[in-house]
Structure to design on (583 residues):
């Protein structure tokens, strides 16, 4: 009966599309800032990152016989230089890794943690009300204990082939030799107001008049090179203990307006964790992603679990009702995310969030020609005797300054890594040549709502919820079929789900799927359509279905690789400066 219902629903959608949609108005293929890109092919190994210099560094390691993890270490360190507004050793990362020799899939959690002194009231003002984001983010209060180096070290110990120290060479060379300041970094610096107030950042990024160095200016960072030399020789311990740790703590605690409370003990005690990935079926594939504390994997799987009830292959990419179904599935999934998802070591999720019957029941709420509006969370509890906690919905902020790496190597290993310092330029605090994160603002500023606790409230040692969604897809034969992910704050989930639908339902290559206009719902009560794309032309049609609509800039940074009959093909997001290399 369920299958019959959804088949009938799709038939109604297709019929309604002819009656409602009419002629589609012309729209530009992409914003003026897009750099059109072609898919890249390779037989043995491939890497896609957000910057050509990072891609080249990782490819150099692959060519030297390195593994996917080896290449990720080298690329991340270069990204710290060339894309410092997005990621670096002062932040955190999530890694999904497939081991070619054994077929084992592992998830490595390098999410930042709250200091031991943190309390749920961290982001409340003297009046007891939540601070504004601007008041919370700049300074030491927002800085979480960084996790990037620990998680890279953990993954390298298990899957590395080349010596740890050798992976630092590309970044050290680049930091000392210098690199041209890119148009993207220059634009970010020009739009930034708070970073220039940090003396170290001002001396590095800006001219004497306080304006950013021009595009093409050669940035040199010998201080970061010296930091990397210490970590290359001493391992991650050289970062988490000793003089680097002392400098980080001093910087965090000395901010004149917004000091933090991190200690050297917080740094020394940080641990990256190996967790069990979350996986679910979609069509003929198995899709696997990052578990909590990233909500990305579970929320993407929830969306796919609902969308699987509809034959999307019969709808055209970018069509009105494809957008309608995608947005409704997103609203329902984000509703569950807001209530139930947080650090599982503090707030275990209720059982049943990925249960097929539960997602099927949620999919029944999607109707043709009628928008849900703001969706309500479901009740996924499958163990009725278990004590329930009445959680409040979380409205925590999450901003899109993040980066993603997708890598496959010649040994059959595959890696998807999403890495971040959270907001653009993080906490706007620079030390030892790198920026510190503002990850703690990913917690809910309000610890409770209406007398109910918020699952994602601040607690000592807790990891803030994320939306990062590094993803690996398997085919029927159990082979890696695709490796992908994106930056984009809480919109990451929609970006990744869109690309998966493009590749798995519409059989697009990675570049074509990435190029699809971004759209969807984050359950804010409206559908978001990417400005200056064909999706924007859907606005009046979606309004006719009852949707409230916002047409906005949606700057994803997708990097995807997919298996072909002859090897691999990869794509990089035209919205950013990323590239792909393969051999």
């Amino acid at each position: 009966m369920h299958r019959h219902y959804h088949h009938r629903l799709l038939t109604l959608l297709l019929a309604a599309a002819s009656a409602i949609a009419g002629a589609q108005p012309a729209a530009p293929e992409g914003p003026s800032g897009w750099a059109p890109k072609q898919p890249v092919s390779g037989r043995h190994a491939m890497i896609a990152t957000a910057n050509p210099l990072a891609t080249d560094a990782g490819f150099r390691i692959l060519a030297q016989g390195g593994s996917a993890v080896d290449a990720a270490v080298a690329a991340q360190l270069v990204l710290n230089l060339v894309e410092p507004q997005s990621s670096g050793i002062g932040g955190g990362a999530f890694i999904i890794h497939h081991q070619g020799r054994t077929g084992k899939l592992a998830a490595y959690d390098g999410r930042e943690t709250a200091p031991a002194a943190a309390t749920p009231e961290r982001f409340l003002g003297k009046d007891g009300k939540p601070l504004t984001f601007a008041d919370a983010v700049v300074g030491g209060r927002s800085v979480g204990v960084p996790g990037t180096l620990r998680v890279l070290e953990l993954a390298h110990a298990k899957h590395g082939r080349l010596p740890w120290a050798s992976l630092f060479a590309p970044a050290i060379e680049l930091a000392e030799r210098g690199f041209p300041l890119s148009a993207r970094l220059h634009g970010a610096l020009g739009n930034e107001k708070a970073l220039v107030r940090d003396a170290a950042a001002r001396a590095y990024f800006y001219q004497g008049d306080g304006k950013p160095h021009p595009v093409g200016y050669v940035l040199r960072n010998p201080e970061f090179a010296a930091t990397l030399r210490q970590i290359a020789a001493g391992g991650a311990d050289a970062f988490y203990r000793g003089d680097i740790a002392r400098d980080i703590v001093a910087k965090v605690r000395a901010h004149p307006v917004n000091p933090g409370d991190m200690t050297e003990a917080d740094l020394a005690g940080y641990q990256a964790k190996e967790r069990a990935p979350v996986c679910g079926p979609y069509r003929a594939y198995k899709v696997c992603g990052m578990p909590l504390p990233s909500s990305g994997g579970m929320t993407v799987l929830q969306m796919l679990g609902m969308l699987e009830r509809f034959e999307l292959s019969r709808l055209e990419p970018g069509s009105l009702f494809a957008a309608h179904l995608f947005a409704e599935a997103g609203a329902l999934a984000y509703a569950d995310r807001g209530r139930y998802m947080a650090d599982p070591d503090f707030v275990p999720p209720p059982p049943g969030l990925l249960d097929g019957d539960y997602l099927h029941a949620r999919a029944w709420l999607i109707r043709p020609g009628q928008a849900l509006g703001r969706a309500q969370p479901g009740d996924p509890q499958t163990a009725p005797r278990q004590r329930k906690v009445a959680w409040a919905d979380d409205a925590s902020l999450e901003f899109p300054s993040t980066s993603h790496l997708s890598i496959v190597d010649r040994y059959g290993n595959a890696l998807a890594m999403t890495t971040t310092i959270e907001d653009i330029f993080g906490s706007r605090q620079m030390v030892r040549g790198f920026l510190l994160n503002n990850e703690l603002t990913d917690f809910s500023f309000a610890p409770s709502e209406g007398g109910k606790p918020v699952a994602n409230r601040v607690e000592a040692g807790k990891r803030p919820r994320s939306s990062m969604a590094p993803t690996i897809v398997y085919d029927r034969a159990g082979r890696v079929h695709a490796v992908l992910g994106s930056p984009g704050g809480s919109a990451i989930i929609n970006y990744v789900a869109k690309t998966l639908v493009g590749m798995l339902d519409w059989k697009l290559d990675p570049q074509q799927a990435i190029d699809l206009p971004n759209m969807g719902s984050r359950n804010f009560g409206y559908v978001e359509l990417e400005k200056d794309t064909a999706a924007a032309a859907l606005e009046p049609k979606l309004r006719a279905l009852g949707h409230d609509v916002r047409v906005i800039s949606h700057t994803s940074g997708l990097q995807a690789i997919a298996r072909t009959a002859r090897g691999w093909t990869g794509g990089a997001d035209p919205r950013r400066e990323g590239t792909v290399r393969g051999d």
Remarks:
- Confidence is low (pLDDT under 50) at residues 1-5, 14-28, 383-388, 394-399.
- The longest strand covers residues 414-422.
